[in-house]
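We close this part of the discussion by returning to an individual protein. The amino acid sequence and the backbone structure tokens for this protein are reproduced below:
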Amino acid sequence: MRPNLIASCSALALAVNGAVLPRQTSVTPDFDAIVVGGGPAGLSALSGLVRARRKVLLIDSGVYRNAPTRHMHDVLGFDGFTPAYFRWAARQQLSHYDTVDMINGTVTKITPGNSQNTYFTLATSSQSNLTARKHADQPLGLLGPLTDAPGAVRETVTLNSNVVAFVNGTDTPAARAETEKKTIKFITRLREGSTGHEDPSLPTVAEHDWFRVEFTEGLPVERAAFLASFPSEQTSNVGRDLGVQLLRGRLSADPTAGLVTNVPGVYAIGDANSDNVTNVPHALFSGKRTAVYLHVRLAREDGEKELNGTIARRDMDLEARALWDAVNGEPGDILYAGEFDSQLVFCWLAVDGKKRGVHSIPQPLTQLGSTP
């Protein structure tokens, strides 16, 4: 039981400004981040952080927006399931990471630790520990040009420090102090990482791949896995050929209008659009966002059609009434057939050599043809 928990970046700061603040404090935080709230958004944030081996605490109060509903929809793999089952399944998967802590409790207070907001103190009640790993702590190789290597190393430093960058001859004299220039001849797989008996329901299992990197000169290097850097581009030109504008090689989409493109009726979702995000949660989110926007727009169009149809029917009724008044005559005349009655009867009358549609014929006129 630890009533006061310290984090370098809280879920609140992460959500509001989207920035990770520099750590300029003598206080050693208990966690890299604290996620307050255990619903789908909180669980998704927790998943993204612990997969990068950040030490994260999730505090779940047990209060959820969709708690009253019986079924959850539009979540692939969980359509129709109860929200409680989804949360349970997500927790079960996340429990396989050893940098995650999940507790049930209510945060009563969040206090900035200093004026720079580099860490926060949260007041809460209890905690519990859960675990697992994948290529963490295994020797990694980075495939890509030298210019991409420093950033890739920084992104993987939380996974392990045993990393070799294979830049394939793209280094410069100024960068030779950072890496050894070698041109890759070929890569040979020495061992298959999967045994075929892994549990597919687990989010992560140990993998034992092993590769040898051969160079045009010098000794080979062996690695367990590689992180490759390569340019992204559209696999299809359908959008471009349709006239959709491209932004940095991707379909330009308007985030304020359901991710619609410059071509009306065409939407760009997932990693095809120009927001430069490539992951499954983003794809699910963008697809759902467009679906909701499009559904509302179609519903409005249907409403407008119905309204226009009502106006058209009203205009036809008024036209028929005016025509009736013109040919009906006055009371007492032989052609007088009574007042206009908008029963759904239709006939054609020749007026000024033109056929005009009339909605109804009052009963007296229907008997006119039999009058001597």
